[in-house]
Amino acid sequence: MIYQTLGLLAVLALVYSATSGWFERRPINGALVYMMFGLLFGNLGLGWLNLDIGNEGLRLIAEITLGVVLFCDAAEADFEVLERNLRIPERLLGIGLPLTLGLGFGAALLLFDQMSYLEAAILATILAPTDAALGKAVISDHSVPARIRTSLNVESGLNDGICVPVLLALLALAAAEGAESGFFHFMVTEVGIGVFCGVVFTFAACKLLDVASENGWMDNAWRQLPVVSTALGCFALAQLLGGSGFIAAFCGGLLFGRIAGAQKQPMLESAEATGDTLAMITWVIFGAAVVGPALGSFSWQVFVYALLSLTVVRMLPVMLSLLGTSLSFNEKLFMAWFGPRGLASIVFVVIVLGENFPEIETIVITVLLTILFSVIAHGVTANPWVGALFASRPEVAGETNRSGYNDRH
Questions:
Q1: Is 205 among the domain residues?
Q2: How far apart are CA 349 and CA 351, in angstroms?
Q3: How far apart are the C-alpha atoms of 298 and 293, rounded to whole Å?
Q4: How many structural domains are present in the chain?
Q5: Other Cβ atoms closer than 10 A to 40
Q6: Which end of the chain is more exposed for a tag (fewer CB within 10 A), N or C?
Q7: Gap between the Cα atoms of 381 and 333, Å rounded
């Protein structure tokens, strides 16, 4: 069975990579393909995939995937561009994200009578981050104004890193006998050790890469590994020392993006394939081992919360945060809608699976349905909406628009 599973995953990777351009022009995104593949060939389908890896195995794969994604997303942040054009991402993260957390918290308390304040906050935090990969049709389409593409990309790249310490703090409060001591322990260990490990390991890695570059030691065939290995090194070291590997990966990525210099972009581009492969495996497992068994367990409260999470809970905060900007109403509405939920929410819900919350099943089922709705709804609407709103005014390649963003960013 293990070779059959390996062979099926290999066929999926081969077929999708060969037809990825065709899929990107259709209302079908990669996550939907991967998830449906898992459902079709998993235990509730044909039963050809042997993905009975248990919660620990699923958590390890999901954590490694998010660690690499966090590092790469943080490293991709162009500080010079952000410093010149910070207004929209700053509003999305500084105003929109807290409002999203608050609305999600309130909606959970309103719909789920048995859910505690802490559980409602955890559910809201799990579903707050957005996933740029699910909005790739939007972010990579140059007919969309550069400031919109870049702002959505920066938002999705940073909001999961911001939500990590929030989620870990909530879990620390839940696990501690005394809330104050638990939170203090979290701040000192999880955050402090995570930041320290991310900064130290990445700084050492960058110095090694500088020496290797100056002396011509690195062969181009190995250029895809330094970013991935640095991300995993930050993550593993922090976890080993009792800190948060996610915070370490995020902080390490920020530092890498700042000090890596000219070699940053070639290495990041080379590492994207590894991140895409890990994400593919995670989505397949998610479809086969998580979504499949959960089908049929959705209550009307779960259904309503999932719809609210993708609409009011996401869209109203974004619309409010963008008041006073030069964006048109349609552009604001466009940005408000394209907040797909994906990989970060999957990893977050896997993290809380082992927690002993009374309403843990409700939390998990709600997150699963929200992600399922998001994969379908955002995938189906991306290309048609871009075509209807922006196709008539494509940007000239390399032209900088009024916000100062250039297409290459």
A1: no
A2: 5
A3: 11
A4: 1
A5: 15
A6: N
A7: 13
Distance CA 115, CA 302 (A): 12
- CA R_g for the chain: 21
Residue with tokens 């990989």: 343
Contacts for 220 with CB less than 8 Å, ≥ 6 apart: none
Helix (H, G, I), strand (E, B) or coil at 400: strand
Residues 6+ apart with CB under 8 A from 301: 111, 112
Q: 151 with 87: CB under 8 angstroms?
A: no
Residue type at 267 in one-letter notation: M
- A 10 A CB-CB count for 227 gives 28
Q: Are 285 and 52 in contact (CB under 8 A)?
A: no
Contact 50, 1 (CB under 8 A): yes
Report residue 397's pLDDT band, with 50, 70 and 90 as the boundaries. very low
Q: Six-digit token pair at 50?
A: 């042997």
Report whether pLDDT(148) > 70: yes
Residue 261 gets which letter from DSSP? G
Q: Which of 151-160, 237-246, 280-289 has the highest mean pLDDT?
A: 237-246
Q: Alpha carbon 75 to chain centroid distance?
A: 14
Nearest to 234 by CA among 270, 199, 272: 199
pTM: 0.78
Give the bridge partners for 406, in sequence order.
Answer: 400
Asked, for residue 344, whether it belongs to a domain, the answer is yes
Confidence category of residue 52, pLDDT binned at 50, 70, 90 = low
| Beta-carbon contacts of residue 101 (< 8 Å; ≥ 6 apart) | 121, 124, 125, 128, 166
Kindly state the average pLDDT of the residues 309-325: 94
Compute the distance between CA of residue 138 and CA of residue 153 in angstroms, rounded to an integer: 10
In a domain, 197, yes or no: no
Task: Decide if pLDDT at 300 tops 80.
Answer: yes
Are 71 and 253 a contacting pair, CB within 8 Å?
A: yes
Q: What tokens does 386 get?
A: 């871009």
pLDDT, the chain, mean: 80
- Give me the domain span that covers residue 164: 58-168+264-390
Q: Is residue 153 part of a domain?
A: yes
Report residue 159 as tokens: 């909001």
**What are 122-146's pLDDT values in tens digits?**
999 999 998 866 666 676 667 788 7
Buried b (16+ CB within 10 A) or exposed e, 231-242: bbbbbbbbbeee
Check: CB of residue 283 under 8 Å from CB of residue 31.
yes
Residue range 82-102: average pLDDT? 84
What is the percent of the chain where pLDDT is above 70? 82
